[in-house]
Structures are given as C-alpha cells and as structure tokens.
C-alpha cells in the first residue's frame, strides 16, 4: 500500500530559526515521484518541488532545501532562516500511477 | 499559473439538495482531478479524469459523481448533499512531460452543507 506520513502536526518557531519538516513514505513502486506543496493562509496550494526516485541528490532553492533518502524512505524539507511569510501548511505527496497520495500536512507558524 | 478556475468559490447549501462544482482549465490538459481537504486528513482524491468521458474513482468517491463532456470542464456533483460533505474542494490538472508530470491546483471551493 502507498502511504505518506507527516508526523509533525504543528511546528512553531521564531523568525530566523531553521526548521525541518519530516516526510516518510511507503511504496512498492520501483519508480516514483515525491512532491512538496505549500498552502499559505490564503488557501491556495503551491507546488514547491518534485523529486524522482532515481535522484537522491539533495536540492537547494534559496532558503529551502530537501533531503531525499531512499534508505529511510524519507523526503524531508528544511527552511533555513525562517521568515513570517513561511507560515503555512506544508504537504508531502507521493505519486502512484496517475494519482497523488498526500500526507496530512504540517502547520508551520513562524513568529516575529 | 496553470489556468485553472473553480466555480463557485463559496457555497452554502442545505442537506439533501444537489450541488455541482465546476472546474475549468484553459490549457488542454488531459488529466483532471477532484480532491477534498478536511482537517486531519490532508487532501483525498474523489474522482479523476484521463480524457473526455473517461473518469475513475478515487479514495473517497461515495456520494459523488463526475462528468467530463469537454476537455476544459470537469464537473463534480453531489446528488444529495450531506453535512459530511462540508469541505474545501480542489480541482487539479497534470502538466508536464509524461512520467515527470506535476499536479497544479485550482483556488478551491468552500462548500458548507447545513
């Protein structure tokens, strides 16, 4: 069965702190894709990153970085020097056939 | 911007009434999806479509039907709305090269069933 677990329901940090959002997945597919989406308070879902199972290199985009480890079935997301604008719900998702399986999300609150 | 609109954006209705939500896209994407978002559950797939008149069920399809008579429109119908269908509904499309496609989401419809 395919499953995505985001064990952290809510995280609160103070601005400029680094924060890591955990994502653990289960799949029997040999080829798969993992995603992160951001849902700010305004409610829209914003695509952040797609990673395929063949590429285990970490990815960095500005203050955002992603650590993909097949050995532990994890795809963690780190925000460096967090800002108030990073406050949102973040979803990790696994692509299985033509569908996405989402985790339950992690609410990140960044306080000034 | 993946050119996805949803209508209505907000709706309040009463138990037992039929409701239709519309998803419209302007970029000729083949795949379209309907999800619902509820606290503690993340997003769950209701139905999806892989072409005109080609649809399939998702994880939480009971009580919902869909139709796709044109590439650009994907309709979600609640035949007889219940309070458990109070939720935020998101439409999505898949864009990108086959095998590397990414789902992009519409702005959502907030539905309240009283």
Summarize the structure.
With 112 residues, chain A is an all-beta fold. Chain A has strands at residues 3-5, 10-14, 19-21, 24-26, 33-39, 46-52, 59-61, 64-69, 74-79, 88-96, 99-102, 106-111. Chain A is globular and about 45 Å long.
Describe the structure.
The complex is a heterodimer of chains A (112) and B (114). By secondary structure, chain A is mainly β. Helices cover 0% and strands 55% of the residues of chain A. In chain A, the strands form three sheets. In chain A, strands 2, 5, 6, 10, 11 and 12 form a six-stranded mixed sheet that branches. A four-stranded antiparallel sheet of chain A has the order 3-9-8-7, with no helix packed on it. The N and C termini of chain A lie far apart (41 Å). The relative contact order of chain A is 0.34. In chain B, the strands form two sheets. In chain B, strands 2, 4, 5, 6, 9, 10 and 11 form a seven-stranded mixed sheet that branches. A four-stranded antiparallel sheet of chain B has the order 1-3-8-7, with no helix packed on it. Chain B is globular, with a radius of gyration of 13 Å. Chains A and B meet through strand 5, strand 6 and strand 11 of A and strand 5, strand 9 and strand 10 of B.
Q: How are the SSEs placed, and which strands pair?
A:
The complex is a heterodimer of chains A (112) and B (114).
Chain A: E1 3-5, E2 10-14, E3 19-21, E4 24-26, E5 33-39, E6 46-52, E7 59-61, E8 64-69, E9 74-79, E10 88-96, E11 99-102, E12 106-111
Parallel strand pairs in A: 2-12
Antiparallel strand pairs in A: 1-4, 3-9, 5-6, 5-10, 7-8, 8-9, 10-11, 10-12
Chain B: E1 4-7, E2 10-13, E3 19-25, E4 32-38, E5 42-51, E6 54-57, E7 64-70, E8 73-78, E9 87-95, E10 102-105, E11 109-113
Parallel strand pairs in B: 2-11
Antiparallel strand pairs in B: 1-3, 3-8, 4-5, 4-9, 5-6, 7-8, 9-10, 9-11
């Amino acid at each position: 069965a395919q499953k995505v677990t985001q064990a952290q329901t809510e995280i609160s940090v103070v601005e400029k702190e680094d924060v890591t959002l955990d994502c653990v997945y289960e799949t029997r597919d040999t080829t798969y894709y993992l995603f992160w989406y951001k849902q700010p308070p305004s409610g829209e879902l914003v695509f952040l990153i797609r990673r395929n199972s063949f590429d285990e290199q970490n990815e960095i985009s500005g203050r955002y970085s992603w650590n993909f480890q097949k050995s532990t079935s994890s795809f963690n997301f780190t925000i460096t020097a967090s800002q108030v604008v990073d406050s949102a719900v973040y979803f990790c998702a696994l692509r299985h056939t033509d569908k996405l399986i989402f985790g339950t999300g992690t609410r990140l609150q960044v306080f000034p | 911007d993946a050119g996805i609109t949803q209508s209505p954006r907000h709706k309040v209705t009463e138990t037992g009434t039929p409701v239709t939500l519309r998803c419209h896209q302007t970029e000729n994407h083949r795949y379209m999806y309907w999800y619902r978002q509820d606290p503690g559950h993340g997003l769950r797939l209701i139905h999806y479509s892989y072409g005109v008149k080609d649809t399939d069920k998702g994880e939480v399809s009971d009580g919902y039907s869909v139709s796709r008579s044109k590439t650009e429109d994907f309709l979600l119908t609640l035949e007889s709305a219940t309070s458990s269908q109070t939720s935020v509904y998101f439409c999505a499309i898949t864009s990108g090269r086959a095998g590397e496609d990414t789902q992009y989401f519409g702005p959502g419809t907030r539905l309240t069933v009283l």
